[in-house]
Amino acid sequence: MLRRRNRNALFKKIGFIALVLLLLWLIGRTIPYLFRADAQDDAASVVEEFYKYEQAGDFGSSWELFHPLMKERFSKSAYLQSRAHIFMQHFGVETFEFEMEKPEREFDVTVMDGVKPFPEAYKVGITMKYRSSFGQLDIVQTCYVVQDGQEWTLLWYYPGKGEEQHSSESSE
């Protein structure tokens, strides 16, 4: 009788230890996904905010969301003039609709020739739909969102010569 009680107590202890180890393993596997989901949501919100500013014609606010490399490429005044001139005046539109793909996490991303690759970035495909004086125009653009310090910032993709489009982009 005494041996049976000791054996049952031993099985209970082993079962408890196995359950605790299983829970610790599950927690360890889940924690990285929790942080990754936040980063993906943060990246998506920056892209959405950028293109909502663009929709409203608030190019100054959208420019502020650019990564410093993009700000070097376009001065604020040049960006404001170009965006308003090309899209609003030439296309004859006041706004546009846009569709955004789900951000995809990528590593060692090169967005521009001659620029050191980013260790981690979120790639987001955007389709802007303009109802213009030239008919329906769809412009597909690839964006990347990277962290610059504590801020998430946006970059456009500039493929080098001879580089093919990304597989998620359609080529016709």
From TrEMBL:
Domain of life according to the entry: Bacteria
Protein name: DUF4878 domain-containing protein
